[in-house]
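Re: export button greyed out
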Amino acid sequence: MEKFVPLGNEALAQGALDAGMSGIYAYPGTPSTEIMEYVQRSKEAAARGIHRQWSANEKTALEAALGMSYAGKRAMVCMKHVGLNVAADPFMNAAITGANGGLIVTVADDPSMHSSQNEQDSRYYGRYAMVPILEPADQQEAYDLPKYAFELSEKHAIPVLVRLTTRLSHSRADIVRGEALPENALAIPANLRQFVLLPAVSRRNYAHLLEKQRDFEREAEQSFLTRYEDGPDKSLGIVACGIAYNYLMENYPDGCPHPVLKIGQYPVPTRLVAQLVEACESILVLEEGAPLVEEMLRGYPFDSGKVRGRLDGTLPRAGELNPNLVAKGLGRDVPEPGYTTPDILVGRPPQLCDGCPHGDTYRALNEALEAYSKGRVFSDIGCYTLGALPPYNAINSCVDMGASITMAKGATDAGLAPAVAVIGDSTFSHSGMTGLLDVVNANAPVKVVIVDNQTTAMTGGQDSPATGQIEQIAMGLGVPEEHVRVITPLPRQHEANVAVIREELGYEGVSVIIARRECIETAKRRRKSS
Amino acid sequence: MKYDIILAGVGGQGVLSIAAIIGMAAVDAGLRMKQSEVHGMSQRGGEVQSHLRIADRRIFSDLIPAGSADMLLSMEPLEALRYLPHLSPDGVIVAEQNPLVNIPNYPALEDVLVALRAYPQATLVDGQGIARALRATRSSNMVLLGAASAFLPLPAADFEAAISKIFGRKGGAVVAQNVEAFRQGRGLTTTAQAG
Ligand SMILES: Cc1ncc(C[n+]2csc(CCOP(=O)(O)OP(=O)(O)O)c2C)c(N)n1
Ligand code: SF4
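Workaround output, generated via the alternate export path:
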């Protein structure tokens, strides 16, 4: 068989294909994007006709996956951690409806915030919804996981949360593939009220979910992702969750002398934890992300001081783990690096590409705004967020997808008028349209600049859901036609663009200015592939 | 056997294609490998690094512990300086000597090169110059790979086979160009080592 050296994301995707998945749903977001991209490239997925188009956002993606599960087939939905905030409503409620065909919700967390606004830990969501959570430690486990997860999901009729983190998502290793399973046949739920969450049904389903918690915990205890490895030196016992296990073992290539509980499935297998705590004098908890297991073990407010981890400074409270941090946490001698960086070293922050259309938009916007006091430009998430940095210094916010438009509205409600919202085309279709309706209904003096580079550039140039329809969407939502303006962000159009923006700033109602020119990276890729 | 490499460069410089070639050569030779990559925000002209580990046994961590890399291979001189704390005291540095200046406060190039040359096992390579002379400006990273290959625990033929596989889709001419760039790079360090 051909050698297979996938990213963690790709291993999971191939594992899902080999586990009889019939559809994958996703909105791009680092570090989760390559899961869908792998399936989109797969010849096998094409031959099988597997659903593999991007969705407009994470909420629509999760709901569509739930619909496929309703119809009896195996479905997976993928997103980055903050995507689960957007999809939280269907996620929490899907725990109550339960699944029919196997349903996997894969969420890739980004501890250390390499490409994200925060480092929230999705395991909290899984615990909140009371669904099983799986956390693979390496690429092989990521590949083996979907078969197990779909079976678990179908056996207990429950969605399963799969939690990845950046390092596993974006790291390759050689792995071994297994046999492929066929897809499920179409089969609607035996009980046609299962998915009707009227209070009477919900109460019954919820009671059922509570009852199943014990089963879920037993499954976690017996899971192939969980393992109790005994060791002779009981002065310390170690709980290692997910990828943290690798950093631990990196420190003990010939075997760890201490007992280790490797956890790869939740709810936390309490019997195994109790066994470890009883056997050992003290406990070190290693987990990537938040101190979720550590908090449980400390049992506030009766903390015995026996447990160490991120909360007592043994490990840093924030950020990713690595072998050196874990070595320090273990109290091992960490060799000092032989070399330090010289003083002349400077940082190299990311920046807009040479010739990027966003740069031309910001130059025009900055000039048009010279007549106004500073601090009235709300923005959003995408390549254009780099407009916050020099030389542009053009935007004053970046919070969550779509927030530019609604924050600008709130600011005008407070009297900061006119306010500007700079939002990308993909972000606009993800979560900007409903906010624009609020602005229209209030006829607030918000100038929405949609920087339409006709792609989802920041995450690698995926298709943008509203390409070709933005004017119609704006007008359909009620923006007057004469205030839906289109400009071409090019240096030679600079004066004309400044004039258009100035005109709209002078108008007291809502305006939409579409700055349209294709991302040069996407254009390059398109030319290459055609 | 275990060999850990930090690959460094700026987003868009082809750090990941070098990692892919070394990784493929290692796996084809029956070795285990792990390679962590940077995707996302920093690929927009920011600092990009990849941790590449090859070994003849199981590799646990996807990240190379600080102070223990055997090689620092950088497509850009300033970026080589950034990852020095990752290098083991007897590790080697192979770095492109031509800078990519996309920040206003890029230090004086001479200072950067002097700082690099201060390390006992640093090889600075005019990858861009050599690639230009071959009329293959986009193959400068293959020159760097060639220069680095003399230190790696795999024979040259394994790398050339991996180059052919990875560029095969683009046709024989592209493969030949990249193999030639690789050979010229390799010549720089094999002769230096012999002398
Ligand atoms: C809820 C959520 N989903 C996904 C992301 C990841 N993400 C950040 S920017 C971006 C794409 C933005 O595309 P667009 O608005 O068209 O701007 P461009 O990058 O093309 O300039 C995505 C998907 C996120 N930060 N939050
Ligand atoms: S990838 Fe496209 S949108 Fe992003 S900075 Fe480059 S040109 Fe601009």
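The mean pLDDT of chain B is 93. The button fix ships in the next patch.
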